[in-house]
Fold these 2 entries.
Entry 1:
Amino acid sequence: MGEAITELRGTDRIIVPIKLEPHTKIRFQCGPGIPCFKLCCSELYLPLTPYDILRLRDRLKLTTDQFLVLYTEPFILPKSKLPVARLKMRDDENKTCPFVSEKGCQVYEDRPLACRYYPLGLGIFRNRDEGRNEDFYYLVKEGFCQGLDTGPEITVEEYRRSQGIPEFEEPVLEWAEIIMKKESLGPIEVPQKSLELFFMVSTNPERFRRFIFESRFLEIYEVDKETLEKIKEDDLALLQFGFKWLKTVLYAEKGVPIKKEIPQEKKIKPF
Ligand code: SF4
Ligand code: SF4
């Protein structure tokens, strides 16, 4: 791995320009005994994935609406310009995370994907020759974090597994693809309505479910019976369906087919 960078102080932050592979070894140790404990849990721009929202909502025994109002605020992703929800920091001097306490993270088992990755960063490289995306990793070094370059060596993949990253990442792989595609397309104009639909699927499965079953959605889109049964009850299945549908809405991909004949809206007669 790259050499330790020891001259960083306080809020200094650098991205180490070294591409890490799953087998690359890093050294990082963190835990309640360390002097910088919890310093990384304030002043964050912490976007939540749709799966983060499900996990935190269930952990806190809230409805999605309640969770969104109490703990999040809308956020436009800088590169893709797509709207998501991010964790709303407390209104205190240090802008601390709403889930941090004296003892550490109160939602540790359900903490968001971004918290699990730190101090690793995930990058995606588009291999145009082979027509596929390749993941790579890098280290983020901040002046206050004393855990880097300490402790035993561990590979990037071992670190990812020790933090439960695959469990939180796999349900949102298609969602990440949608965002990356928008990034790679550059500053294309997306209709406001499509942005609102992206936000609905990305943040609120209950609203999305009502939208499917209580609007003209099923008159317009072809959805087989088995899928319909699944998405009525199962939030994870609903998310996967939602990501496919977003690909149709945003990029005209075949994700969820449109019916050949769409019934016209009935005209309401006054008598
Ligand atoms: S969710 Fe937990 S780990 Fe993440 S910033 Fe908040 S307190 Fe820290
Ligand atoms: S070692 Fe780094 S990640 Fe761990 S508590 Fe300290 S600042 Fe946070």
Entry 2:
Amino acid sequence: MSRPRHQNKEIEALLRRLEGDGWRVAKASKYFRIYCPCLDRGHQRSVHLTPSSSAYLKNLEMWIARLHREAP
Ligand SMILES: [Zn+2]
């Protein structure tokens, strides 16, 4: 793995899980950016270096879980 680690342990674990699922994780100067393997432009977002709260990780996980799910 060539990218730098995320300083937040829980987010780093999530990034590794995503990489295992084929996502691309890139480090920018002030944030990380994650790209879904489907390459849909709506399926990418930035990940803060210093998340404001534990809700940040939860929101991120929920956003990921909603992708590729059929609308009700
Ligand atoms: Zn996708």
